Amino acid sequence: MARPRRFDERQVLDTARERFWSGGYAATRMEDIAEATGLGKGSLYGAFGGKQELFHRVFDDYCGSVVDAVSRQLRGNDADAFERLSAHVHAVAAATAADTAHRGCLLAKGAAELAEHDETVAKRARTAIEALQKLLEDDIAACQRNGDIAADADPGKLAALVLAVLRGIEALGKAGASEETLTDIARTALAVLPRPAH
Amino acid sequence: MARPRRFDERQVLDTARERFWSGGYAATRMEDIAEATGLGKGSLYGAFGGKQELFHRVFDDYCGSVVDAVSRQLRGNDADAFERLSAHVHAVAAATAADTAHRGCLLAKGAAELAEHDETVAKRARTAIEALQKLLEDDIAACQRNGDIAADADPGKLAALVLAVLRGIEALGKAGASEETLTDIARTALAVLPRPAH
DNA sequence: TCAGTTCTTGACTGGTTCGTCCATAACACT
DNA sequence: AGTGTTATGGACGAACCAGTCAAGAACTGA
């Protein structure tokens, strides 16, 4: 009954993500996004409300997709749990090293810029982090069932440690650490995890 | 021979740091800083050049003071090296947890916002991180000499790991992790460091 | 006391940016 | 085809902001 949208909302969100990711929230102009997507500003505002709401959409999407991706990497049977954990940790190091533009992770960047003054962003980041920790914890528990990690260790605490290492790798990557340093951190972190005595 | 400055440069830098730290670079207005310091904009520009230069000054100062502070915490004799390391790691966790405003560390926040597009900031962050790693490495080597950490471990790699954990604690704190989680991470990280076999 | 120099103040400029508005376009249903 | 509804695009308004400038103030050394 009404004129249909000519643009794909998904695509606009992806483009907006790109802009916010590379420039940050404050430094990205709505007009940049309009030009990059080919939309007029009217359409942009009509469809998403405003800059803040658009960012919230983008940020929410991004957090969800990160958790999804990690979930795909870590879920599986007990036998491969340690291998999955190892692959994940190394993948984060490799991805961070490959990110020559040093944009890091939008979750970290957005939280750093806005969490203090934007409760919505703060809350979303918190739930994403909690989800990531839970995924790690489940995988570590699987490692323990399979005898790859000491059974008497607290999987929640090890998961928190691994998560801190992963976020730390991101942070160091943004500060310009070399690929070698990052992969060393990944390797060392996996090496110091408590193995079962035999 | 000329009219003397009425303001203390140090104090202005501290106030500017406060503003940049809490609002980020892009979202902080020079007029905010002028008002907060009581200076007119002309004085501000006359003394510091411009927004970017002022931020560079502030950022450089901050990086230096962080490295200094850590240096004071970590330098000392071999006998207390592990205790100093432990105290430092726990201090970072406690400070992060106490930072209820979640502003995190200006080094991380500034790098996150600007490193991608500002080579000066990127370089300064890099040298600060390298200095921190060196301090940790020296302390860990001291631990090894004192028999608190396995002598066959690579102190540089352990230092990189510890640094990643510390930066990760900061990042998780900003994302809203609880004090308990953060201190658990600190405790667990220290616990998994390789001890000498005896 | 006076001259020379630097500092201060705040109004002003020019450019930028968020968000709005409106005339027009595109479609669905009758 | 006609009508109602929603999308489009870009001009526009209002606020904001970095940086400048000029007139006057404060101080020192002569």
Automatic annotation (TrEMBL), chains A, B:
Alphabetical keyword list: DNA-binding, Transcription, Transcription regulation
Top-level taxon: Bacteria
UniProt-recorded Gene Ontology molecular function terms: DNA binding
Sequence ranges assigned to domain HTH tetR-type in this UniProt record: 6-66
DNA-binding region, residues: 29-48
One Pfam family of this chain: TetR_N
Protein name per the record: TetR/AcrR family transcriptional regulator
